[in-house]
Amino acid sequence: MLNSHFGEFPKLHEAFKQHFLIGAAVNPMTLDTQRELLTHHFNSVTAENEMKFERLHPSEDQYTFDDANRLVEFAKANGMGVRGHTLVWHNQTPQWVFEDRNGSAVDRETLLARMKSHIETVVTRYKGSIYAWDVVNEAVSDKSGELLRTSKWLDIAGEDFIAKAFEYAHAADPGAQLFYNDYNESVPEKREKIYTLVKSLKEKGVPIHGIGLQAHWNLEHPTIDDIREAIERYASLGMKLHITELDVSVFRHDDRRTDLAAPNDEMLERQAERYKQFFQLFKEYSDHIKSVTFWGAADDYTWLDNFPVNGRKNWPFLFDTEHKPKQSYWDVLDVARS
Ligand code: GLA
Fold this sequence. Notes:
The protein is an alpha/beta fold and 338 residues long. It is built from twelve helices and nine strands. An eight-stranded parallel β-barrel has the order 1-2-3-4-5-6-8-9, surrounded by five helices. Helix 6 runs parallel beside helix 8, helix 9 runs parallel beside helix 10 (224-235) and helix 11 packs parallel to helix 12. The longest helix has 20 residues, at 265-284.
């Protein structure tokens, strides 16, 4: 039904083939419902949830790889790359990882042994199929004056849980590029913390190759100047950069409306303008930026539906709910051609 018109539209990944990969986060449902769109425009996929700790390793002796395998097979069958997401995170990690049989906290050695075993198993399984892994996700704090966020990883293992995760991942697949990934990555105060963390890892000789900028952005924030500053600062560490979770909410931060059935013209124009500026920047820095992944593919499915405002739909992508190109798509394509 949705598919007949796809051939008419230039493929995004071909338009940017000199610059970077074009990726989308997918899940078992969208692998079916967005199949045509995905295979037409994208040459990289990421599991929205299916490679997270709780999904792959729900209890100590049990691994569940079916959904992740299906994604990797889909990518192979369609000549796409896979970005792995994510090995160590404070969220979506099961309780058992941090507790003994009586429910008390495990000691540092036990936790690191569990981390190692998880990373070895997962990274080895997909060795050669995954070009980059988000090894550690969101370890930096948003709180003023605090470098690392409080988490069980930090509480139990201490701050070198981060270095250990990279070492274990590198040992399991020396060919995979290893990333530190975070949000609010363009906010100056957090940017400096991410910079400080990655710089210290690099100085210790930790095998880290890149920084993932999640890029959950909106019509106003962050400013182009702040994004440029973040790209330059991270690139100055000699890191590769990936845009890992790009979406552009059509709501300004203080806009809490829940009555819109569709985005209005003003939103769509502003969104197109923003996307154009972002891709101009990505292209300008394409010596550093090697992959640009959207956190979804089209407006029929986005994690921003009902978040952070319940009962509110969002329309954050280049393609609408019927997978038709929006003005944002045409403006991004113009950037590739200019
Ligand atoms: C973070 C995580 C993603 C995802 C989003 C929300 O950005 O890195 O895996 O959970 O939140 O969908």
